[in-house]
Amino acid sequence: MTFSVTVLGSSSALPTSSRFPTAHLLNANERFFLIDCGEGTQIQLRKYQIRFSKINHIFISHLHGDHYFGLFGLISSLSLLGRTNDLNIYSHPELEEILNFQLKYYDLGFNLLFHAIQDKFAGLIYEDKQIMVSTFPLKHRVASNGFVFKEKQKEKNLIKDMIPYYHLGIRDILKIKNGDDFIDQNGNVIPNQRLTHPAKEPRSYAFCSDTAYDPTIIEHINGVNILYHESTFAENLAKRAEETGHSTAKQAAQIAHLAEVKKLLLGHFSARYKDLSIFQQEAKEIFSEVENVIEGHTYKIE
Amino acid sequence: MTFSVTVLGSSSALPTSSRFPTAHLLNANERFFLIDCGEGTQIQLRKYQIRFSKINHIFISHLHGDHYFGLFGLISSLSLLGRTNDLNIYSHPELEEILNFQLKYYDLGFNLLFHAIQDKFAGLIYEDKQIMVSTFPLKHRVASNGFVFKEKQKEKNLIKDMIPYYHLGIRDILKIKNGDDFIDQNGNVIPNQRLTHPAKEPRSYAFCSDTAYDPTIIEHINGVNILYHESTFAENLAKRAEETGHSTAKQAAQIAHLAEVKKLLLGHFSARYKDLSIFQQEAKEIFSEVENVIEGHTYKIE
User: Are A130 and A202 in contact (CB under 8 A)?
Assistant: First the structure.
């Protein structure tokens, strides 16, 4: 199953000539989940040749313009393109009011289903056969939420030769794939690990933006394959980060280290930094598996 | 005096990988007037290295998203950049309501002065020492207005040698520059054209988008140096143009021809056209001085 994230924007509040505001696109088996939708997201989707129509779920972390001002244009374009499928939006309740107001003159042609995330809520907000999405509060100037996208635990892989050897029936197989031991006709217990290969570990992606340094999020993102954590500032502006509810690259690395994630992606770079190498460099002092995001790049989650 | 227009966006409602939605920037002697503000306008301003802070007046033609969805991000960025100067916005009254709603949580740090253009209004909406801006109704699915930016008539140029020859005083000079004849001490009338060179013709720029073909606008744009007229479709989709309140390139050319403008710029191209040469080609059959706009290009008005 494809499980990857494409970064569409990497700037903080002020876009630059080369950096768009925040938007990430998660591809889980060719179903697309948009995370944040800064101004110009639809333009980036066009640029990277991603079909709008594949997006059915949009998650908005918080209501600062650089994380949702692209929503109106995207929704309006989806409508112009003749969309009829429901579009689900997950965010804080104020966004529903904003959308209703902004779109009151539009006849969209599809349902906009709003799923409110209450302040401080942590828990599951979406699941289907293959993945689960949960949310948790971040620490910012306004209510802000992180998201974790995680594959569901797959069944164990039955070793094929065991079927004739133990005369396994369909029901036995389902139970064994689910982790049960097998009891044969003589009452012998065949332990599950003799019958199966373990399932692949479920992969996971966590998105944390915007947020100040906040170790309380670790329980929610522990061990994820890829953690995206905002790093608006380098260490030279650690004080400014604290004042504005943002993080430095080093703080993001510290979170990645404590949460024992596999890989860290940094983004949401302040416009004042032309050369971004300092972010990766400072983070590396604490956590080696780190990259600055590059717009248009797709990161495989594996 | 600099008098030019920079095109920031040339797409119609659906942006493409290479075309942003509508926004034009008029430079009148280093004072900047923004005309329409589609999504991504601030990104284009950055790209073409135009300082946001120079914009004090924004004119919005109509309330379809591709002409104003960039306003929220631009205003928010102006605020983040520490703006304190008033920002003037000229548009239909509904936009004031939208802006108030959208910005109610923002402490901008500057005044947003809204100047409502009532439905069907035609007349002057702005003037200063150097230029005048007037508006007039277009023909679209919602209230839509065009704008004409025109230099003020300059004073005539006094021929320097005439000052000692006729012993002209300051008051005489001011009157003569204003067009008066001069009466010398013997009562002889010296005609103005003997004393002066004519002033340069005031230059003008007209912006007409979005609109169906509408010859009633000709009186407002007659003889302008540059006419920007939307041409969403080529002739193959003339019927679609009519249905949607848009124009074809040929219709734009017909307006340019009837209004005897000096030069026609075409834009607001539908996303379905990859190759835009058909627009210029079809328009040329009727009006030779025509160009398709190119994003980032600055057109001198002369």
Answer: no
Q: Return the bridge partners of A11, or none.
A: A269
B102 confidence band (pLDDT: 50, 70, 90): confident
What does the pLDDT read at residue B154?
Answer: 87
Give the CA radius of gyration of chain A. 22
What residue spans of B132-196 are helical by DSSP H?
Answer: 162-166, 170-177, 192-195
Identify which of B207, B125, B205, B197 has the alpha carbon closest to the alpha carbon of residue B154: B197
Q: What is the rounded CA–CA span in Å between residue A56 and residue A33?
A: 7
Spatial contact of A206 and A221, defined as CB atoms under 8 Å apart: yes
Judged by a CB distance cut-off of 8 A, whether residue A73 touches chain B is: yes
Query: What stretches of chain A show up as alpha helix (H) in DSSP?
Result: 41-47, 71-80, 93-102, 162-166, 170-177, 192-195, 218-221, 238-244, 249-258, 277-284
What does pTM read for this prediction? 0.91
Active-site annotation holds for A107 = no
Distance from chain centroid for Cα B228: 8
Q: Which two tokens stand for residue B263?
A: 């030069």
What DSSP string describes A270-284?
-TT-S--HHHHHHHH
Residues in A closer than 8 angstroms to B63, CB to CB, are 105
- Cα(B184)–Cα(B174) distance, integer angstroms: 15
Counted residue by residue, chain A has a size of 302
Helix (H) or strand (E) holding B90: strand B87-91
Give the pLDDT confidence of B253-278 residue by residue, as tens digits. Answer: 999 999 999 999 999 999 999 999 99
Task: Domains for chain A: give ranges and CATH numbers.
Answer: 3-154+200-300 (3.60.15.10), 157-197 (no CATH)
Catalytic residue among A66, A107, A181, A184: A66
Tell me the average pLDDT across A2-26: 96
Q: Which of A69, A76, A101 sits opposite B72 (nearest CB)?
A: A69
Crossing angle of the two packed helices A249-258 and A277-284, in degrees rounded to 10: 40
